Amino acid sequence: MLAYATARVPTKAGIVLVVGGIGAALLGLVLWRGLDELLAWSLTLLGIAYTVSLLLHGRGVDGAAPLVAAGLLVCAELAAWSLEERYPVAAETRVVVARLWALAGLVGAGLAASALVVALAAAPAGAGLAWTVLGAAAAVLVVAVASHLVRRAH
Question: What Cα–Cα distance (Å) separates residue 82 from each residue in 25, 37, 75, 77, 132?
């Protein structure tokens, strides 16, 4: 994600690299030392690096935004999972498999819905009310799928 954000604005890559580099270093520190309170900060800085690259790039909708979001989600979930594995309580195999399926479902649904939202955002300005309603329905669908998967996991 950081490499993609940096490549988007090669003339001002230093700004993106500094912010994203701090986020990546924090993520490494979180995983190495088990500092779970810094996980949100590391992911936030990585997200800010991508946002800065979008602002500096200054051209329309980024078609890769759903992939970046999915990457950040997977990174956050796997880092949190890694932190939980430090405790000496072993999870049953079916719990691990269920968690993997829930993560895959959440990422897949999020990718599909966010790709739809990005496609609608890139549509011509005169697309009309139907596209707006479809975009809003896609956003609601993401929240519904996420809450359903959370309820199933618990």
Answer: 16, 14, 10, 8, 39
Model pLDDT, residue 48:
92
Rg (CA), the chain: 18
- The answer to whether 142 touches 109, Cβ cutoff 8 Å, is yes
pLDDT of residue 126: 61
